[in-house]
Design a protein that fits this description.
- This protein is of the alpha+beta class.
- Helices cover 49% and strands 14% of the residues.
- It is built from 25 helices and 17 strands.
- It starts with a helix and ends with a helix.
- Bound molecules: zinc ion.
- The site of zinc ion has 8 residues, from helix 13.
């Protein structure tokens, strides 16, 4: 890491961290800074204060990371009892949709290491004294070297993501100390490098010149890569491959961070196969990026042929662009139109030659039994390729709390697959904490990735360690085990869903309140919801579900069909509570035989999802089941309250108690008449006759119930909307009552 970057980034982090001490001790900011400085073994990092240019850069960076209603208002309440909690980021979002204000914020709990929904976000829930004690304990061990930037960012993430940046009477601050600190460190680092590169000493000049680059990378062909799985190991391979995409992205952004000499704060966002970074616009910035991407591309073509490629683009911008609404939107729209153009011409001529070289996609004599790819990497005697073998091991590593993913300079085992760095080749290995230490002693470690938490204290302290957040909820079973636990018919439910209009929300959702800090806070809350909160929701109900992918803004999961329907509704309810309806989700649920090919159901449920996005009766916010013809598409509310809560419940109450085989044959007949109603009204009369016969057949004791049930059903059949809902409810009921496979 560059020495001056270390100084400005660390200074920015500590400068915000002292706000916690300030509130705990009820002292002025300067005094809190002094206390914090006194805790450190070596407070030379605070020397950025003595350099006018660096000091100016830190101030500019802090201003960029703030918001206009906060602006220069760094004043604090004089008494602790008037401090306020963190205001929900969703309150200023899409305000035309709902005027309700949300009290919910997803907060990190340092004790359990999990995220929880904090509903009463007033000051009473923030224990500044306890936070100060914990922070002090960790800061005392700092000696002022590079690796501590990462630790300091972790510390701020753990203790400051639920703390508002400014706090005081009537203050509605939706910017957390964590979000402000990490953005300030990112901007300060990038601007420091720019100023050094251009030998620019004037902060005003830096402020108004294109001194920054917003960088984005995007996986193209990610679906083909992930869903091309043909074997019985599909579930494991799928999860491993979606995790692998995140791992490649993490390694890419870390390579970029290191080659520039920046900190991990410069990664603004990563998820769903996309990322954004803040970089300096130096003379050789594009050259550096090009070099890394070339290495990545070469490796990906060698390993996977054309199935996985990463596109990237940058947009030049000035610090003042970040502080002006129109210019700010322009940065993001400009960047996304640039990358969209690149998607049309994915491969450079040299790549095409490499792709067509014999052997690059394998010889045709052996085929991998898992991915089906003809591959030179299928070893004689084996039946799958090296990568599929690695994906299976990766799947085991994901569920093993004591193992991590290591990028090594040389192979530890013969089977370690090749990976990429900007300098050359690397190898991917799955190691225990002890094995990591051994490799570190041999200076063989480039980087270590742990899933959700560091696997040991040594690894947490190492500057080559990173965390990859992943929703790891999985009933680690084969597909046929998942269906075995299904209620009624033994079928697999497949759910895909994502947030509606998200791209537009990021650009226009905050209206003239837009800022980089809000954009960042919104993506943090969404990531936390889909990566961490989702796992809590699923485990609370102990659903028979395996999450294949959750992150960015989308979810793809499989499980017992009845659990999948129930889980979809739970997820939607939690999301609604968090966002107060400011954001909505649309999805599709398909029900399949467990032997059905993954690639097919992935594509089909995507169609169901798209049917929900085009619901003609409701603005997105919908669910589609079974078929994409609109006959089973509902708003979530209609599905929950009228299909499940009313129709299905009525069927369960009346027929559920009856002999189910008899009930089912009656329902099949009824369903046939209901479906026939649209084309021929005679079917209404047939349905009425059927219902009447059912009443008279029923025992005398139940006669009254039967009459009430039959009247209710008949009323529903006469009304188009109710009739449609009833047909869906009958389908679900028949599925759950069916005894056979
Ligand atoms: Zn394979």
């Amino acid at each position: 890491m560059n020495e001056q970057v270390f100084q400005t980034a660390m200074f920015s982090l500590l400068n915000d961290l002292s706000r916690i001490i300030q509130r705990a001790e009820n002292v002025r900011k300067a005094k809190a800074d002094e206390i914090l400085g006194g805790l450190m073994n070596n407070n030379s990092v605070l020397s950025a204060k003595q350099d006018d240019v660096l000091q100016g850069i830190c101030q500019l960076a802090s201003e960029m990371s703030s918001q206009k209603e906060i602006g220069g208002n760094t004043g604090e309440a004089s008494k602790n009892d008037s401090l306020t909690g963190l205001y929900s980021i969703f309150n200023r979002l899409n305000t035309e949709k709902s005027a309700v204000t949300s009290q919910s914020v997803l907060c990190y709990d340092e004790e359990s290491g999990a995220f929880f929904r904090c509903d009463n976000n007033d000051v009473a829930t923030i224990d500044y004294r306890k936070k100060t004690d914990r922070i002090s304990e960790r800061i005392r061990k700092f000696s002022g070297n590079d690796s501590e930037i990462g630790q300091c960012l972790d510390l701020i993430y753990e203790y400051c993501s639920d703390v508002p940046y400014v706090s005081g009477k009537n203050m509605k601050c939706d910017l957390s100390v964590y979000e402000h600190a990490r953005l300030t460190a990112a901007f300060a680092g990038a601007l420091t490098l720019y100023s050094r590169d251009k030998n620019s000493k004037s902060v005003d000049e830096i402020r108004n010149s294109d001194s920054l680059l917003l960088y984005t990378a995007d996986f193209s062909g990610i679906q083909n890569f992930i869903y091309t799985v043909v074997s019985e190991n599909a579930l494991k391979t799928l999860r491993a491959k979606s995790f692998f995409v995140e791992l490649v992205m993490a390694n890419l952004t870390d390579e970029i961070t290191e080659s520039f000499g920046l900190t991990k704060a410069n990664l603004l966002y990563s998820g769903g196969g996309h990322c954004y970074m803040i970089l300096p616009n130096m003379t050789d910035s594009l050259k550096k990026l090009d070099k890394i991407h070339r290495k990545l591309n070469d490796w990906s073509i060698r390993s996977f042929g054309s199935s996985l490629s990463v596109l990237w683009e940058t947009k030049e911008c000035s610090p003042s662009d970040f502080m002006e609404e129109k210019a700010y939107k322009g940065i993001f729209t400009g960047l996304s139109s640039k990358i969209a153009k690149k998607k049309f011409r994915k491969y450079m001529p040299a790549d095409l030659i490499a792709l067509n070289r014999p052997g690059s996609c394998g010889d045709k004599t052996r085929e991998c039994s898992i991915c089906g790819r003809a591959s030179a990497y299928v070893r004689s005697g084996g039946d799958h390729c090296d990568w599929c073998a690695a994906f299976l091991e990766m799947a085991r590593t994901i569920t093993d709390a004591d193992k991590c993913f290591a990028v090594l300079k040389t192979k530890k085992h013969e089977k370690n697959t090749e990976f990429f760095t900007s300098e050359g080749t690397a190898y991917l290995a799955f190691l225990s904490g002890e094995e990591c230490n051994e490799e570190a002693e041999k200076d063989n470690v480039i980087r270590i990735y742990c899933k959700n938490r560091y696997i040991s204290d040594e690894i947490a302290k190492s500057d080559s360690s990173r965390i990859i957040a992943v929703c790891d909820y999985a009933k680690d079973k084969m597909m046929d085990d998942l269906v075995e636990y299904a209620k009624g018919v033994k079928r697999l439910g497949v759910l895909r869903m994502d947030v509606d209009n998200l791209g537009n929300t990021f650009i226009s959702g905050f209206g003239n309140n837009v800022s980089i800090a809000r954009t960042a806070a919104l993506s943090t809350q969404l990531s936390v919801f889909f990566k961490c909160r989702l796992a809590d929701i699923l485990s609370r109900e102990n659903y028979n579900i395996t999450v294949l992918y959750a992150g960015g803004d989308d979810v793809f999961l499989v499980g017992s069909w009845n659990d999948v329907i129930s889980a979809a509704d739970r997820i939607i309810c939690e999301f609604e509570e968090l966002t107060d309806g400011k954001l909505t989700i649309s999805g599709g649920i398909g029900i399949y035989n467990h032997k059905y090919p993954v690639a097919r159901y992935a594509a089909e449920t995507e169609k169901l999802e798209s049917c929900s996005k085009h619901n003609t009766k409701h603005e997105k916010d919908s669910i589609t089941l079974f078929a994409d013809d609109g006959s089973n598409t509902y708003s979530w509310k209609e599905f929950r309250e009228e299909v499940i809560g009313e129709k299905l419940k009525a069927l369960e109450e009346f027929i559920g108690s009856d002999d189910s085989d008899k009930g089912n044959s009656f329902l099949y007949k009824l369903l046939e008449y209901i479906r026939g109603c649209e084309s021929d009204r005679i079917n209404i009369a047939r349905a009425a006759y059927l219902l009447g016969r059912m009443c008279s057949k029923n025992g005398v004791v139940n006669q009254e119930n039967a009459k009430a049930f039959s009247d209710r059903m008949f009323g529903w059949i006469g009304n188009e909307k109710d009739r449609k809902q009833l047909a869906t409810a009958i389908c679900i009921f028949v599925y759950q009552e069916r005894k056979c496979r």
